[in-house]
């Protein structure tokens, strides 16, 4: 029997990472506070998941100042987009194996 979960990527196991990626693949970039509000998570929780995704080359970080305030925004990398779409396709096959 074929391993039906082999296409799933462990980096996206967390619901927060799934949320992060879902937000990023449909937006050019998203700042930290917007992401935190959308996902309803704490600063530390979001920061640790973003750091893990950054370490894997899945998200890119851009730090800048808007006026005098620091602003950190995140974008999905091309590698991140590819890996996430493969993960989503594997989930779809798991849910509906006949499609």
Quick structural summary:
The protein is α+β, with helices and mostly antiparallel strands and 99 residues long. The protein has helices spanning 15-25, 32-39, 43-55, 78-95; strands at residues 30-31, 59-66, 69-76.
Description:
With 99 residues, the protein is an alpha+beta fold. It has a single domain (11-93), classed as Arc Repressor Mutant, subunit A, CATH 1.10.10. The chain is 51% helix and 18% strand. It is built from four helices and three strands, in the order αβααββα. The protein has helices at 15-25, 32-39, 43-55, 78-95; strands spanning 30-31, 59-66, 69-76. A three-stranded antiparallel sheet has the order 1-3-2. The longest helix has 18 residues, at 78-95.
Key attributes of the depicted protein:
99 residues; 4 helices; Arc Repressor Mutant, subunit A; elongated; 18% strand; alpha+beta
Count the DSSP helices: 4
CATH architecture: Orthogonal Bundle
Fraction of residues in helix: 40-55%
Looking at this structure, what is the CATH superfamily? Winged helix-like DNA-binding domain superfamily/Winged helix DNA-binding domain
The order of strands across the largest sheet is: 1-3-2
